[in-house]
Write a structure and sequence with these properties.
The complex is a heterodimer of chains A (180) and B (199). Chain A has 180 residues and is of the alpha/beta class. Chain A is built from seven helices and six strands; from the N terminus they run H-E-E-H-E-H-H-H-E-H-E-H-E. In chain A, helix 7 links the parallel strand 5 and strand 6. Helices cover 40% and strands 14% of the residues of chain B. Chain B is built from eight helices and seven strands, in the order H-H-E-H-H-E-H-E-H-H-E-E-E-H-E. Classes of the chains: A alpha/beta (180), B alpha/beta (199). At the A-B interface, helix 2 and helix 4 of A face helix 5 and helix 7 of B.
């Protein structure tokens, strides 16, 4: 019988795998400090690879694009889709379009949480999943929906290997899943 | 390049546009060639990065991109976003959009060159006076100053955004300290050459 994978543990393993690449850096608010459960998946990521960022989503997205133009592989983390709306300009007009209007090849791994309304309902400004809407706007960015623990590690491996950028959506309702 | 050579290049592009050979907007300037020549000769090294907006061909030429290469990119319809990775030049047609990308490159240069004996490379970000007043640019200026990143914001102040006077829209200027600034008067229309062109 195969091993039963746990969603949260797989996210932690994927982050640890990414951290082993010499060019990765982890950028976002709450990557060094508690505040969201997401930070616990970075427990095995060295502190020197984590860039605690101010609340400035559009600047964060552009900053990560700039890092990638100079050879880094940023893992750009947003805990909720609602906040990504503030970064849409950089995400769509720049990161997604740069390969279409230039010979630059930015490669950013974007990690986004799609929150659930249970056990705590944070209301209509915090619980949306805009994956389908952004997928329609993208021309180059690959979108991966992480709907099961088994998908997580292979999806992040693909994100690390492919030439362009990847946006990976995780579903926080699976965070507390336990093996059956 | 000399001011005369820059203007001759622009004249050549204007002729190509009028002849219907460029199937995309072109943004000519005139009026700022001397200021740019002075800035580039004083501050820009070959290994530096430059970021600009859509009025960018003078910057490309002064950064050392061969004029034939710049012209071909414009003929190919890429005037708005001339990019030359081998010359460390990036431009974008979205107001203020270059600022955070430039910031990321500056952060990378800081990490890479800090503690080495190499002279720091610098990122030069050329922005219009309307872009300067935008929120994203102010955020980037704050971050750059706070983290002492090797980046210079150059404000190319022609008092306008497309055809809207910046001061009328934003009110009295509240300039951010520590930026390089020059003023100039546009000698060309915002886009095209001021005459109808049949394509």
């Amino acid at each position: 019988m195969g091993e039963i994978l746990i969603y949260f543990d797989e996210l932690t393993s994927a982050m640890t795998m990414l951290a082993q690449h010499p060019k990765t850096v982890f950028v976002g608010q709450g990557v060094k400090y508690p505040g969201t459960s997401l930070v616990e998946t970075l427990n095995d990521v060295p502190m020197e690879k984590r860039i605690e960022f101010p609340v400035a989503e559009d600047m964060q997205m552009g900053f990560c694009t700039g890092l990638s133009l100079d050879g880094w592989i940023p893992v750009c983390i947003f805990p909720r889709w609602s906040f990504v709306l503030c970064a849409a300009q950089q995400l769509v007009n720049h990161l997604d379009r740069i390969p279409l209007f230039s010979d630059y090849k930015p490669k950013v791994i974007i990690r986004i949480g799609a929150p659930h309304d249970k056990p705590l309902d944070a209301g209509p400004q915090h619980t949306d999943d805009f994956t389908a809407a952004f997928d329609m706007m993208f021309r180059t960015i690959q979108v991966e929906r992480l709907l099961a623990a088994e998908q997580i590690q292979p999806a992040y491996e693909r994100a690390l290997e492919r030439e362009g950028s990847t946006l990976l959506v995780e579903y926080t309702k699976f965070y507390s899943a336990k093996p059956r | 390049m000399t001011a005369e050579e820059l203007l001759a290049f622009e004249e050549d592009i204007a002729r190509e546009f009028e002849a219907g050979h460029i199937h995309a907007p072109v943004h000519l300037a005139g009026g700022n060639q001397s200021q740019l020549i002075e800035y580039f000769s004083k501050y820009v090294q070959p290994h530096d990065w430059i970021f600009t907006g859509w009025r960018n061909h003078f910057h490309a030429l002064l950064k050392g991109v061969p004029s034939a290469e710049v012209k071909q990119a414009i003929l190919d319809g890429r005037s708005i976003s001339l990019c030359f990775p081998e010359h460390r030049m990036f431009s974008s047609g979205i107001v203020g959009g270059i600022a955070p990308i430039a910031l990321g490159v500056a952060q990378s240069l800081y990490w890479r060159e800090r503690g080495t004996f190499n002279q720091y490379s610098t990122v030069h970000v050329f922005l219009g006076d309307m872009s300067e007043r935008s929120g994203i640019v102010r955020e980037c200026m704050d971050y750059a100053a706070g983290h002492r990143l090797p980046i210079i914001f150059v404000i190319e102040d022609n008092g306008m955004s497309i055809c809207s006077p910046t001061q009328e829209t934003w009110g009295e200027p509240n300039f951010y300290p520590g930026v390089h600034r020059y003023s100039y008067k546009m000698e060309r229309p915002h886009v095209g050459v001021g005459r109808w062109v049949k394509f």
